[in-house]
Amino acid sequence: MDNLTELTFTTVPKLWKQRDEIFRNSVFDMQNIRKIDAAGAAFLVQWAKTLDNKKIKLLNVSQTAVNLITTYRLNDILEIET
């Protein structure tokens, strides 16, 4: 996911195929993410559901992503570090 710049409707299907590998971690560096939409937020929710009550730690989160996470009230499952 290092080269990923979007977490969107168009990128999530490819990521979903890699979910077994991706979901092993509980930290996601969003430094290169320039665009996120509802599909990207849903992907993060599904990821969080696999972590047995642990939060995903999101690093280097853009203000746009923070706004989306706040709007969808995902702060209970996503820990944001900007």
Work out the helicity level.
25-40%
Just name the CATH architecture.
2-Layer Sandwich
User: Superfamily at the CATH H level?
Assistant: STAS domain
How far apart lie the N and C ends? 19 Å
Q: Rough shape?
A: globular
Specify the biggest β-sheet.
Answer: 3 strands, parallel
| Gyration radius, in Å | 11 Å
Q: What is the number of beta strands? A: 5
CATH class: Alpha Beta
Order of helices and strands: EHHEEHEHE
What is the third-level CATH name, the topology?
Transcription Regulator spoIIAA
Instruction: Outline the low-pLDDT stretches.
Output: none
The domain tally reads 1
Quaternary form: single chain
Mean pLDDT: 92
Could you give the order of strands across the largest sheet?
2-4-5
Please tally the helical runs, counting DSSP H or I stretches of 4 or more residues: 4
Protein name: Phospholipid transport system transporter-binding protein
Domain STAS: 1-82
How is this structure best described in words?
The protein is of the alpha/beta class and 82 residues long. The chain has one domain: 2-Layer Sandwich (Transcription Regulator spoIIAA), CATH 3.30.750. Helix content is 38%, strand content 18%. It has a three-stranded parallel beta sheet with strand order 2-4-5, covered by helices on one side. It has a two-stranded parallel ribbon with strand order 1-3. Strand 4, helix 4 and strand 5 form a beta-alpha-beta unit. The protein is globular, with a radius of gyration of 11 Å. The relative contact order is 0.20. The model has no long low-confidence stretch (mean pLDDT 92).
